[in-house]
Design goal:
Blueprint (H helix, E strand, L loop, with lengths): L1 H7 L8 H10 L2 E7 L13 E6 L6 E5 L4 E5 L4 E6 L7 E6 L4 E6 L3 E6 L8 E4 L5 E7 L4 E6 L3 E11 L2 E9 L3 E6 L6 E5 L4 E5 L6 H4 L5 H10 L4 H4 L13 E5 L8 E9 L5 E8 L5 E7 L7 H7 L16 E4 L4 E6 L6 E3 L1 H5 L32 H19 L11 E7 L14 E2 L4 E3 L6 H6 L2 E2 L3 E8 L4 E5 L2 E2 L4 E4 L14 E7 L11 E2 L5 E6 L2 E6 L18 E2 L1 E7 L5 E6 L6 E5 L4 E6 L2
Parallel strand pairs: 24-28, 32-36
Antiparallel strand pairs: 1-40, 2-3, 3-4, 4-5, 6-7, 7-8, 8-9, 10-11, 11-12, 12-13, 14-15, 15-16, 16-17, 18-19, 19-20, 20-32, 21-31, 22-23, 22-29, 22-30, 25-26, 26-27, 28-29, 33-34, 34-35, 35-37, 38-39, 39-40
Length: 611
Amino acid sequence: CAYLRNRELGMKPKLGSTDRFMKGLYTSFLPCTYWDHNESLQNAAPGGIFNLEFSPDGSLLVAACEKRSILMFDPLSRQLLNTVDNAHFDCVNCVRFLDSRVFATCSDDSTVALWDARNLKTRIRTLHGHSNWVKNIEFSQSDGLLVTSGFDGSIYTWDINSYTESGFLYNRVFHTNGLMRTRLNPDASKMIICTTGGYLILIHNLDLRTLAQDLEGFKPNMYRLMQLSQTTIPVAANFTHLFSKKRKKNRIEFLTDFPDGDDAEVVSSLQVHPQGWCALSRNISNDENSEWTCVHDIQDLDIDSSSQEDEGNSEQSAGEESDAESEQSTVSSTEMASMVIGLNSRARVLSSAEAVGGRVPRRVLRRQNAFRGFRAQVVPDRGELTVTSTDVWEALVAIREARARRDRRPEAPALESRLRIVRMQSGIEAVRAWHADSDIVLADGSVSSGLNSNPDESRSNSTHTTGRSFYIISRPPHRLVKMFILLSRFVTRTFKVMPKNHKIHQNTPRLTHFIEESNVGKGFIKELCFSADGRLICSPFGYGVRLLSFSPTCSELSSCVPEHGRPARLHEIGTNVSHSDIVVSTKFSPRHCLLVSGCLTGRIVWHQPVL
């Protein structure tokens, strides 16, 4: 090969020759060898291969298995070196090497275990702290901290070098409902979090030591709800300063843009480019009829100083109003709009006719093995946000408290937009219980409040006012909550304009590449991966794997950025079908031109170039 000959002689490669060589190498990937427990009768069936991980030097390969076991291989000889049949009390979800010998595993038994590859007879330590399935492990070399996250919505850091009599020192640094995966970029300067709400959270200039204090009280789902509704929620708007470009550490950014046709709901899989340039994610749409792989840029953006000053202006509490900054304004409109929010569904805006035209059709999908136990309830054909009842109720209480403070002011001007609870229903159409602490809005828009209120009494004592109403349904055992926020604006009204520091942060489009995936194996997380040089993406594709690149010539991402900021489709380099069941995990070797994949029946396949 002329390329190799020139390389041996130390000659500078011609422009484009490296891309052509890498394309020839990657397009020749074929399945070479496989391991199957059926051919090794001395080993118990491992079940599905949920995760695959190489040691940093590429000398070891460890598989996390569904049936509580971990498998260790020599990736070059393809020989099984060791097996731990009862590594955990439930399925093992993730493996992460801390160095060439020590690695950590996490499980649905809510624990994290530390192992020494030289002696797998016993664990080094067991880490207790999570209250639900632990799904992810990261390691920050600079801080010496282990970072774990799980379906309890919490992210913990563990100082594994500071062991005490009571165990390791650990801290909960962040919490959000609907958390799925957490990743660190290679130098641990950024943290990326994917959620069940159809968006990603990016934390710039990460400082794990102060993260808990810097983000204390911040609720991403509530802030995202405020962005979608474009309605100021004081308790959420108080954290707009976290998005300011002036922040020196732990700055927040939301990644919310997805390709046309992808109404992302659950973003289940997440990886970071080897150079830290972008985040690779896989999501399922809210109607569950399509899956997508998306690439988002996560590098720092160059923002002019004027926009920085504009965004860094929100340090005042959102629960308080500044009379000096307030001004009178009038608006005339007869429009009506609505927002629907489900407990595990998402927020969406309805038209006027839809809002007042009776009940909104919904489809509740029941899945026995939804994300290995993660149940979701969705609304089809809508762009919506997952919000939990906790976040919604906290927003509701905060707004009502702020309204009460304004009402106590004798000089307060005309009413602002208001929130009213219409009624609560538990699986029946008739309303039989009216809560004393709730304001009741009738169908004609009248408002009544007070102790022991009922529809008949409130109709006679009603006054018309601009307001928002909530229609709440609780339907055990699914506890599906529907809220209709009826935004009614009638004849000309005078209201206060919120001060400038209460404004809502607008997200920046970050999507660069995308492709639609096969929609099979619903309920299982499919782990994608980057090649060591970042040119290639491997994605589980049915009973095989699909190799994707940023350009037809397998160029690096830095040389094929989409023009005019328009997202581009990923290019398919090849597809290999070599499994007998759904592929759920893939991994490239960090040192060798080698790819491994694992499926639900426990088969592991090695892929290499065949020239």
